[in-house]
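Example record for the data management plan.
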Amino acid sequence: SANPLYLIKGVLGRTLYTIPQRPERIQIEITNRCNYTCGMCPRESFNLPEQDMPFDFFKQIIDRLEPSFNITLTGWGEPLLHPALIDMIGYTKGKGHNVGVTTNGLLLATFIEKLIEVQLEKLTISLDNVEDSYEVAEGHPSNKVVINNIESLIKYRGNRKAPMVTIQITIHNKQQCISTVRFAGEVGADRVYLVRLNLPMGRHGLKRPSLEEELEIYKEAEIIGKKYGLQVDNNYTAFDNSVLRLIYKTLRPAMYRFDKLCPKPYDYLYINIDGKVTPCCDLPRHEVGNILKQGIEEIWHCENMQYFREHQNDVCGTCDALKLKHLN
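Corresponding structural encoding:
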């Protein structure tokens, strides 16, 4: 994990609106095929041709990234559908990077042993609902298979430290969210990440809690977290290093020009299925560079990226996924 002084410098730097030397996190879209159709997900509206990234092409990308980055192998698709996923994790780790995967968990059963064997650092499972009686129409479906897979994974992991298991919950309403946080605590997950439903990106007619209700949910989730030793993260606290979460929580309202800006362009880049780089997964066609033609630091500091940072609100409209306040 990163050096605390480096991270503190990063937090303070962002409070003062400075750009780090290079991104902290890189997300690589290894497939855009998916086995779910979620109402909140804009994937289908992008009209992207369905494909998997060839393994040789993937290796070329990784070979161009100097260690060590936090790399997540997930895009607008389900990574467990990619036939070379385990080889991709092994190759990326072999080049000195930390690797995470975000999945809907439906296919997890046949991957449990392999993911632990390859020593994947982080596994994030999207789960919005655990109650049979209560279905969230626009979210990831409540699924007994996924719930059983999470239980099996944590049981099989035993005393091993890796992978760190996060349950990612999109907040639709208090009851759905809190019962899922409680499940995460009871099952022995390490962390929950509470995600705001991003209205502009999903389909019309979606509803989400008010900011006031959102803050209540965070508070209640923190209480459950303390009971189970579960790390609870949201837009206010999302930072890996435990020492820094308090500093970040305190400074976060002042960061990014008092919430006028989104944090993503200051620590993150997205590499899509054909090697094009964009500032955000929600902007798959907003190309700022190409990883096969330029170095990652060159792209990070290029004119396109600088322009995006200065005009992000014009490009992103009312997207408030990572802001503190609601924009709509």
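Summary line stored alongside the record: The mean pLDDT is 83.
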